[in-house]
């Protein structure tokens, strides 16, 4: 048992399993649990599950900034949880099983209690995964979304040479472009797909990351006069459209990620709308439903004309907006909570694989395991 757990959770490198069945460690662990169940060895079942859970916790603590390792064990923990449900003998989880799969169900033990522990562990691993991904993306966001001029010739009020400075990440001035964010999200997406993480969980990861991009960008917009201009609104709408296109290209458009960016989409439109007449005020109020009154007023106060032909937003116009929005029951805080986490859900996702089709590659050094 100790040899198995040393070889699996503690020593395993995700790259070793490239080209094998995704979530192979979870299937191997389930087969060991099933054998202990078959021999009716109560001590071995509980020892195997407890040691596995502790081993996974230990490896995640050691690699708490490693996206690939964290994604790997999230995939495997979820798959082990699915296996314990799929082969539990509970009819509710067996509806998609083949007759052959039903032969692999547990016979002697009810492991419901361990399913709850694995579910809690999955939530912890998911939260670690999000924290790592956010840590990588956060330094890129302001530069890529608000400062970098990806639409050439839009600069207006920006200093000469800005484009040249921002478009290069090699000069070490922390300037990032949108392509850097998209490259990084491609990398996250590829890792999670290759490791067999459930599509429903991948969607939740990107919904969370898009919420953070929205919150960090909007908060900076609300604090900086130099980016509150018509050209920034144009730039933001272009950047958001590129992110939406990326989601569609990865079949992630149903994830709710775009909806999390609605406040930023509306802020970009607000920067571009006319801001003079009573009709303009009505248009702003009917459009900006995801922004609070405080946020709308703040953007209008910070708004900087692009050139001498454009006028500042008048105090009278801002009062007009406030009068029209006074019925709204808005939250009082100006900034969004960029650390807000949506609750994660792990829907049951049975596997079509049969246990007798699982082969253990020699690279795992598990020769002491015999198929029975």
Automatic annotation (TrEMBL):
Keywords: Signal. Residues 50-327 form the Dilute domain. It comes from the Eukaryota. The keyword Signal applies. The keyword Signal applies. Residues 1-19 form the signal peptide. PROSITE patterns: DILUTE. InterPro entries: Dilute_dom, Vascular_dev_regulator. This is Unconventional myosin-Vb-like. It comes from Galeopterus variegatus (Malayan flying lemur).
